[in-house]
């Protein structure tokens, strides 16, 4: 079982996310007259601007990575509990009857 989108009720295995990547660098004109970009590389992701969306309906579900991760994780934990309980029931059934 996978998490279910609270908006469209579709089963989703993952969330899409998007965020602003700030880029920085310098631009100059080289000896041939062409512009020359020198990037400092991508600066750190700015987490405040991150949004997590449902891949099915594209609705924004979370704006916080902790929330998004726990949304994906909680189901796994629940699933584990269910599997554990099922195993216990099985064990009980496998036990020889007195
Ligand atoms: Zn959805």
Overall description:
The chain is of the alpha+beta class. It has one domain (16-94). 31% of the residues lie in helices and 24% in strands. It has 1 helix and 5 strands, in the order E-E-E-E-E-H. It has one helix spanning 65-94, and strands spanning 16-18, 23-29, 35-42, 51-53, 60-62. Strands 1-4-5 form a 3-stranded antiparallel sheet. A two-stranded antiparallel sheet has the order 2-3. It is elongated and about 95 Å long. It starts with 15 loop residues before the first strand and ends with a helix. The mean pLDDT is 83. Bound molecules: zinc ion (ZN). The site of zinc ion has 8 residues, from loops.
In the sheet with the most strands, the strands line up as 1-4-5
Give the bound compounds.
Answer: zinc ion
Profile the largest sheet: 3 strands, antiparallel
Order of helices and strands: EEEEEH
Number of domains: 1
Outline the secondary-structure elements.
Elements: E1 16-18, E2 23-29, E3 35-42, E4 51-53, E5 60-62, H1 65-94
Antiparallel strand pairs: 1-4, 2-3, 4-5
The structure holds zinc ion.
């Amino acid at each position: 079982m996978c998490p279910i989108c609270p908006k469209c009720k579709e089963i989703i295995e993952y969330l899409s996310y998007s965020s602003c990547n700030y880029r920085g660098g310098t631009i100059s004109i080289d000896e041939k007259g062409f512009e020359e970009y020198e990037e400092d590389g991508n600066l750190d992701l700015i987490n405040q601007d991150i949004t997590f969306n449902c891949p099915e309906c594209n609705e924004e579900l979370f704006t916080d990575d902790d929330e998004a991760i726990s949304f994906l994780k909680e189901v796994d934990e629940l699933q584990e509990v269910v599997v554990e309980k099922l195993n216990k029931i099985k064990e009980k059934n496998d036990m020889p009857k007195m």
